[in-house]
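Entry type: protein chain
Record version: 2
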Amino acid sequence: MSNASKTESPEELALYVKAPKVYPREVSGRFSRLRVLAAWVLLGLFYVLPWINLDGTQIVLFDLPAREFHVFGLTFWPQDFFMLALLLAIAAISLFFFTALAGRLWCGYACPQTVWTEVFLWMERFAEGPRNKRMRLDKAPWTAEKVRKKALKQFLFITFSLWTGITFVGFFTPIRELVPSLMAFNAGGWEVFWTFFYGFATYGNAGYLREQVCKYMCPYARFQSAMFDDDSLVISYDRERGEPRGKRRKDADKDALGLGDCIECQGCVQVCPTGIDIRDGLQIECIACAACIDVCDEVMDKMGYPRGLIRYTTENALAHKPTRVLRPRLFIYLGVLLALVALFGLVLTGREAVHVDVLRDRNALYRMAGAEIENPFSLKITNRTEQVQRLSLSASGLEGLRVVTPTGAIEVPAGEVVDRPMTLSVPADQAGPGMQTIEIRLRAEDDEGPQATAETRFFVPSGDR
């Protein structure tokens, strides 16, 4: 093998260079405050909701063994899963709408990866100090001080990750029972597994992978370009105003120096959680956190330059082309979104507390019982309430139609589905031949509870009976 074949070019070597660790600098500003507020709200909902009880039931609990899903006082059953499809459609259209409007707002402010990474950065700053100190600490040899700071960081990371895992499982197992059982080491195997699994995922994703998740693991970065256009608001660097870059004193005349507004301070790079340079243009790694806007505005204020060197704007605006932020596709997305939300609200408010399905018996279309014609059916009754329901059964739609079986009230346990055979009959001389539409009604015995109705067909044979 020749020496040339053994020697790799610099370009080939660069493909295997380890990605440098990103040390985001802390920044303050209007977008930073919005990000912190969103983090507090979302984390508060996640960690507090499982501990709130309403009428003795956890306010948000997905009880898989019991097939009950409690959400803010409402109870859903597996039969309501079509509502989940509506929620997923609403989430998808919302993503289209906000991305077309202003890029990756979800990524910058509400994505769990972003929110939990922000929390881990807070803990890292608390244990190791600001950006420059963290960088020096990582390069310094191991000392007692370094061990103390690293140990404190790991303690905070692991404790918070485990508590996150416990809280996650607490949405599926009542958390007031889960925590004592974990403390007493008698929790079930699945509870323990998912607690450590989700805790480890939080520790790895938010503690170490961080921007790698956004860059390489999240598919949203890959298909976002198909969701916005040149009229979408995105975070952009005004190259025309900022170039050529160059350092200068605050009182220097930039025009005399032939420089733009960018002072090459590297602040936008230092605060970026994914380690990119927004001045290189729009990149898939940008999560639209707007930290670069905050730090650049701060620098512009100090230099006495106008704000907005880095800002939310459109590609067309930067190119001095006509811009339409409010454009047809936005109104289409908004119209579809509002329609889906209205449909979901309609379905939710119109949801029956008790639902009944009537199925014909496939084995016997009808039978003669003396002077009466009987049709066998099967009732499937769903009780969507949290109380036992005692229901009386009646039928109408044909002269002389009566319920043969079942006799008496039908008892349906809370959240259960019961099957009952039902037989209806009519006098043979009072019904015309063919399929006759009838109505089945279930009514609570006290006449104050839920009711349910369903239509079906009663078959009357023709000719000689």
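Comment: The chain has two domains: 16-351, 354-460.
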